[in-house]
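Posting this for the archive.
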Amino acid sequence: MNGPNLVFEVAYRELRTHARTTAFKAITAFLVAAAIVGPVVVALWPDEDGARQVSIGLADGADRSLEETIVALAQGGLDVEFVPLSGRSQADTEAALASGDIDVIVDAPDTLVWDSQVDAPLAAILGAALQQRALLVRGEAYDLSENDVRQLLTPVDIADRIVDMTESSDFILAIAALGLFAGFLIPQVFGQLTLVSVVEEKSTGVVEVLLGHIHPRTLLLGKVLGLTLLAIGQILVFLAGLGAAMFATDSIDVSGSVWSFVPVLAVSLIGGLVFFNTLFALLGSLISRQEDASQVILPVVAPLMVGFIVGQLAIGGRADTTIIRVLTFVPPITPMLLPIRVARDAVAPWEVAAALSLLVLASWAMIRAAARVYEFTLLHSGSRVSWKKAWGFVRARPGSE
């Protein structure tokens, strides 16, 4: 008594069982809250784009014409207050520096006095102002007018020409990071949920009852389908909350890259969920106690960590290097790297098609392999089944058990 109907019945059982758990409800509530709070916080965050306020002390010998030059060089980035220090003792000026009432003192003829350390951005502006005043003085020695010297010092407008027009805005980097974290975390979370489900059914004897009515392959397919649908539902709830908050706060201007990123991310995540849920179901069948889970999970986590590290490099640097392009076609890593390369516009259409096709083929092969192992290990109890023995089960002929 097996068939598609039984697969859907098992999937429905998984959905109903796990959707009612406190842990699933708590995770879903957290994701929705995070999706809504994030854009709201961005929208309400105080604007810090105003000019920086600085106080510059002018000693007795300082050229007062520096004030106009400093303001011009600051170009509105500084709100400058000039404090004449004539008549103040050295102790008073040093006390003003220490208390923060004055950020720096311009002393005659070309000395800047700081409290404990040099403020590099402010020092650059003041240094340029002192240099400009010195050049004006030297120009007078060569019978050059102040206007002639200023023309010599006028900077040339430099035009920028970018060869690689790949969009690299903060929003693109943000959605690339979103794709990386989704591809890294979601398959692990639901994969381990699948593993725990299999181990619990084995330890409680539920699996013996189930195998009395359905084939192990049907049980595997139903479990993977149910938990994959559960993950997709949770992702959709998260995205719905995020979209609603973004539209309500009008926090970002959605780029056109999203329209190619979202479909690839969705297909990659679904393929990754099927692949890893199946793999973790296989791992769960190899053990009889949850305490042994760490022994079988480590080989699976290793490629995920590699993909996560390489994905960070793809976000922060180039996304089309040889190593990144090669790893894009490795099925366990594809869900992490492919969405990043799409977001960065660093992938050809044929690469997207090839990577997703390999992911589908790998998921299909993993289902076939896990189904063979399931037939031999679901009723196994005691010590962990070795990888060598599990591979022997994969190669075994149907009916040889």
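Confidence is low (pLDDT under 50) at residues 164-168. The longest strand covers residues 52-58.
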